[in-house]
Amino acid sequence: MTRIAPEKPFTVLMFGSSFSHPDSIAFATYGQAEKEAEKRARDTLVPHDIYFSRHLISCVTNPNFAGNVTVEPTPLGQKLFQKLAERAAARDQS
């Protein structure tokens, strides 16, 4: 079983592959993971998934004919992003 490093909780995987796949990459921030997933989706024409500690939080679609790639958060991902925004707002107020 592959362990997740706590300093890099975000993982980008090709759709349908496992965490032990050699092409899986771990990132420290969601922004880095999202940029890499979009780049890989454009290069390989295959959808990619973004995980947070082995929980699926976003799906990155393969590009359409115009070359646009969309990132769709899952319900769990939406809750995570909402909590992070609330914590950032609370930190800014204090």
Q: Care to count the β-strands?
A: 5
Helix/strand order: EEHEEEH
Computed Rg: 14 Å
> Biggest sheet: strands, sense, closure?
5 strands, antiparallel
Residue-averaged pLDDT, rounded? 88
Structural class: alpha+beta
Query: How would the global form be characterised?
Result: globular
Amino-to-carboxy terminus distance: 41 Å
Number of helices: 2
Helix content: 25-40%
Strand content: 15-25%
Give the low-confidence spans: none
Strand order of the biggest β-sheet: 2-1-3-4-5
Oligomer: single chain
Structure description:
The mean pLDDT is 88. The longest helix has 19 residues, at 75-93. By secondary structure, this protein is an alpha+beta fold. The protein has helices spanning 30-44, 75-93; strands at residues 10-14, 25-27, 48-52, 55-60, 71-73. The protein contains 2 helices and 5 strands. Strands 2-1-3-4-5 form a 5-stranded antiparallel β-sheet.
